Protein: ABC transporter related protein
Organism: Sphaerobacter thermophilus
Amino acid sequence: MSVLELDQVSRAFGGIQAVDGVSLTVAPGEIVGIIGPNGSGKSTLFNLITGVYRPDTGRILFQSQDITGWRPYRIARLGVGRTFQIPTLFQHLTAYENLLAAAVEGDWRGAPRRADEVLHLLTLDHVRDERADNLSGGQQKLLELGRVLMRDPRLILLDEVTAGVHPRLREVILSAVRELRDAGTTFLVIEHDMELVRTICDRIVVMDFGQVVATGTFDEIAADPHVMEAYLGRGV
Ligand SMILES: Nc1ncnc2c1ncn2[C@@H]1O[C@H](COP(=O)(O)OP(=O)(O)OP(=O)(O)O)[C@@H](O)[C@H]1O
């Protein structure tokens, strides 16, 4: 059974076809990288999967259930988590409180223990009682990921999660992703950092002008002429 299946999904904004007939299947425990030049439709794809936007056409299945057109909170409850490029934290709450707040709709009783596990996994134990606005940018990104982990999602969408993050914290994020994947979590990862894509992704999907133009392992897509054109032909 696939975790996620997109069947000919499209979405336009005015005259712009942001996502154009994308079909994609993601298997359990896979880490799939989504790459492509600016404006190629990566974020819109995440917004379609998480229910922020409704597709104009096509179907989206999560664990074989048709979630096309569902509201974001229902999709999140079903087991889809997501980080944002800019962390969405409660700035005046502590790291620990931010984690507890993320569990409000989930396993509230188990939340204190889970919050401490998540702080430990992300090496944030020492800033447990610091307010979010006192954390470094990288620590805030880790905490954003931690909030997602509080809900134990089956599928996690990471949107440039290591961008601007200190190399040490970047390693923490990568090892957390690997550990979670080994425990069965599936990941879709939007990334501009090709070294990260190469080291962590099992499979890579390349988008250009809203379409999937190539898919394969890092070595396969690196040798694909469509990919060279998408990146080099447009000077990105
Ligand atoms: N809400 C919106 N209203 C109008 N146009 C939009 C909207 N969201 C996205 N677009 C357009 O759709 C196209 C795809 O944008 P999208 O943000 O999905 O690309 P991206 O690959 O994520 O880019 P980046 O790497 O810069 O984040 C762009 O032309 C963008 O301007």
User: Anything to note?
Assistant: Strands lie at 4-13, 16-26, 31-35, 57-62, 65-66, 80-82, 155-159, 186-190, 203-208, 211-216. The mean pLDDT is 92. The longest strand covers residues 16-26.
